[in-house]
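The instructor's notes for this session suggest beginning with a concrete chain rather than abstract definitions. Hand out the sequence below and ask the class to guess, before any prediction is shown, which regions might be ordered.
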Amino acid sequence: MMCICALVGAVGCGKDTGTKKPDGGPEEPTQTGNYIAYDGSSDYSILLPASAQPAETTAATELSSILREVTGVALDVVAENRVKNVTTSGYFISVGETELYKQQDFRAEDLNTDGFLIKTVDNTLFIIGENQRGTLYGVYEFLEREAGCRFLSPTYDHIPSVQRLGLRNLDVKEVPVFATRSDFYWPMSYDTQYTAKMRYLSQFSGFKDLSESIGGSLTTYWNETGHSFYQFVPHTQYYAEHNDWFSGPDANNSQPCFSNGLNDDGTLTEGDSFMRTLIEAVKQKILDEPMLTHIMLGQQDNDNVCRCDRCTEQIAALGGQRSAQLVLVTNAVAREVKAWMEQEGIDRDIVFLTFSYWWSMNAPTKTDENGNVVAANDYVIPRDDVYIFFAPIGACYNHAINDTSCSKNVVDIYGQFENWRAITDRFYVWDYAVNFNDYLSWYPNLGVLKENLLYYREIGVAGVLTEGAITAQNYYEQDLTSWLLSKLMWNPDQDVNALRAEYDRYYFGEAAGPIITQYADFMNAYFERVSRTQGNSVLHAAIYTNHTPWLVSVDTLNEKMINTADGYLARAKEAIENDEALTQEQKDQYLYNLKQAEVQVMYMKYKNYDAVFYTTDEARYEFMTEFFDLAELLDVNALMENGKSLSELRAEALDG
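After discussion, reveal the predicted structure:
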């Protein structure tokens, strides 16, 4: 992780009178008179429980390491049982569930799983989460709030340098709006510390073995977050003997036959069946993984649904929607597994989930004689322990999900979500935040990130997973979006424009940051203006170019727009180079960060180069070389989902 150390004035080195803030808000915490660090020395040590959990140990280590970067002082990390006379009159930062914490009259409880407290008692500072992961999140919050750190991207943390770090009388309580928060972005597949600093849970299965140090990942608590039926009943294992359990011979292009072993009322048929095999596999998964709390039963990622006579008849009997079968299956699994758990004395809170995605978007509802949306029948009402994982893959992200002026969302997305709400109030959301065909082209969704999360909060969504650039990394808009979501998923009431400005100042410096904010403002306004001049058919911004080609058309990514964007970045570069307050090291860091914005503008020029910018073969070769050199320098990885490698694209571009 690259970082930059800027010597600034002492943090908390003077007394804070605790007067009212100018906006009339609550009083600021006062100074205790103590210093965590003072001119190179400290009386404080970091106190850990005698038997610390892995994430508590990580929290203490990170706190010590980053405070050393900030202040130059290395605070010792000590196990509580190795210290005599541990009281709050001592100079401690208590991290996690220490005995000293247990003696206090406050508790880190009912904090929506990952919440935490930061509290000063006498001379001691307590950082404690509802779980060990929350404790780690509390440490990062303290470092941001009190030490001025900012954790911004996979490649950059802003770490200031201060001579004196005072201890304030803190009483902070942070509770996330959504208990589960995840960003499906490539770095979350391997960078445990980045994931924790963003206060996310990774959903990558390959992350599981790495995640103990940060309190687990989604795959610690979920069997899977996506397409999971073949995890339980592998097509490759069962097709030869039970081909009637599946819609086709290709494991990558088939679905289970959901009616196999399942009556229309949700009861099971006798004998071997897909359903009985599925249920037994779920039971075994629960036995094998004692941390498991969420069982995802998600359809495979294709539309080759089963059209056998039995499925056709069952879907008709359930009201005509294929989603009805998924609910029927999930209800049956939940019922049978919960009965088995009770019989076996397995006392664990487990919930079940199924997708509303692609061919299962339409809710299993109907309109009654009074015009009310109701369940198509009693069997398709999700149980109390069944959640719908709503995935609005066809949404327009130029408008909020619940924007009734958007002809796409109001019917296909918001309308279906509201229909689901007529039969259940238990939801998770799998959202989207990028153009998967053109990762690096500007995607005009920054204006809806907050609005969508506000809607999800309003209807009681339990958790949100947002899918972004799952095979790419290290470009400005994706890093910004990931950071914004990390803040808004905790508190969607925050001012997005203020957050954006904050990010840009810390990422590009005080001089260049505001220019980059202006650049992003220009891009957002430009795409909004273009969308409204193209006609009704292209007002929307889908997550695939082929659905809304105007996003990267020759007319949209034209020479005037590219030159204007280039102008903002040139001004930002000049501001960095001419800022006499910066050291050369700081300038080099900010210029490197700026390249992550530059690569996006270069990509938009590359996208239609021959149609818009071509002059000579020599100029074309020079541009293509420069673009791919920059992409490879930044380790961008990919330009689209499931596309060719950068080396393959480079060869094509230079040979063209």
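Then share the key points. Residues 2-26 have pLDDT under 50 and may be disordered. The longest helix spans residues 584-607.
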